[in-house]
UniProtKB/TrEMBL annotation:
<keyword id="KW-0328">Glycosyltransferase</keyword>
<keyword id="KW-0963">Cytoplasm</keyword>
<dbReference type="GO" id="GO:0016208">
    <property type="term" value="F:AMP binding"/>
</dbReference>
<dbReference type="InterPro" id="IPR050054">
    <property type="entry name" value="UPRTase/APRTase"/>
</dbReference>
<dbReference type="GO" id="GO:0006166">
    <property type="term" value="P:purine ribonucleoside salvage"/>
</dbReference>
<dbReference type="GO" id="GO:0006168">
    <property type="term" value="P:adenine salvage"/>
</dbReference>
<comment type="function">
    <text>Catalyzes a salvage reaction resulting in the formation of AMP, that is energically less costly than de novo synthesis.</text>
</comment>
<comment type="similarity">
    <text>Belongs to the purine/pyrimidine phosphoribosyltransferase family.</text>
</comment>
<keyword id="KW-0808">Transferase</keyword>
<dbReference type="InterPro" id="IPR000836">
    <property type="entry name" value="PRTase_dom"/>
</dbReference>
<dbReference type="GO" id="GO:0044209">
    <property type="term" value="P:AMP salvage"/>
</dbReference>
<dbReference type="InterPro" id="IPR029057">
    <property type="entry name" value="PRTase-like"/>
</dbReference>
<dbReference type="Pfam" id="PF00156">
    <property type="entry name" value="Pribosyltran"/>
</dbReference>
<dbReference type="GO" id="GO:0002055">
    <property type="term" value="F:adenine binding"/>
</dbReference>
<dbReference type="GO" id="GO:0005737">
    <property type="term" value="C:cytoplasm"/>
</dbReference>
<dbReference type="InterPro" id="IPR005764">
    <property type="entry name" value="Ade_phspho_trans"/>
</dbReference>
<keyword id="KW-0660">Purine salvage</keyword>
Length: 171
């Protein structure tokens, strides 16, 4: 199933100079969505994962689907002010701005093996922040899975970890 053909390029969105990869058409196609999620999850079968941590917002869509595909739990890493209770927080820069991510401090049992899931690896700031957040919760970082890697932006270099960062599609 060639799901990559359902990802379109939008020039100058959300800011001039950004070449935005829009995978909404892929999500809208049941077969393509299923194939993409299966491809993201496949390398992680048997990896002893306890949970997938998805990054708001597009990482929720793929992260929850990957978690179901693998039969594991899902933990939301959210933009500020959305999660009740005690939270951990990290700040980071992304391709077109700055943001913060939070997780509930009691989201994971100590030592849980966690896979971070997001849609796009661009400059790498978001994934690096998510990794810091997951480790700060006392979990073990098993790795990260993204649907798309924008190689020209060099984000992989910011993943300074032993655990694998796997991209299903690379541009
Ligand atoms: O590698 P980076 O340069 O950090 O960029 C990648 C991030 O950028 C987008 O997030 P955005 O904040 O636009 O969020 P959204 O999911 O809410 O659309 C995308 O969903 C990734 O999380
Ligand atoms: N160029 C891009 N396309 C889609 N999502 C992104 N997130 C960060 N950069 C992006």
């Amino acid at each position: 199933m060639d799901f990559a053909r359902l990802i379109r390029d939008i020039p100058d969105f959300p800011k001039p100079g950004v070449h935005f990869k829009d995978f909404s058409p892929l999500l809208a196609d049941g077969a393509a969505f299923g194939s993409a999620v299966a491809a993201m999850a496949a390398p992680w079968r048997g990896a002893g994962l306890h949970a997938a941590a998805g990054i708001e917002a597009r990482g929720f869509i793929l992260g929850a689907a990957v978690a179901r595909e693998l039969g594991i739990g899902f933990v939301p890493l959210r933009k500020p002010g959305k999660l009740p209770g005690v939270v951990h927080e990290v700040s980071y820069a992304l391709e077109y701005g700055h943001d913060r991510l939070q997780a509930q401090s009691d989201a994971l049992p100590g030592g849980a093996r966690v896979l971070i899931v997001d849609d796009v690896l661009a400059t790498g700031g978001t994934l690096a922040a998510a990794a810091e957040l997951v480790e700060g919760l006392g979990a073990t970082l098993a790795g990260a899975a993204v649907l798309l890697e924008l190689t020209a932006l060099g984000g992989r270099a910011r993943w300074r970890r032993e655990s694998p960062l796997l991209a299903t599609l690379r541009y």
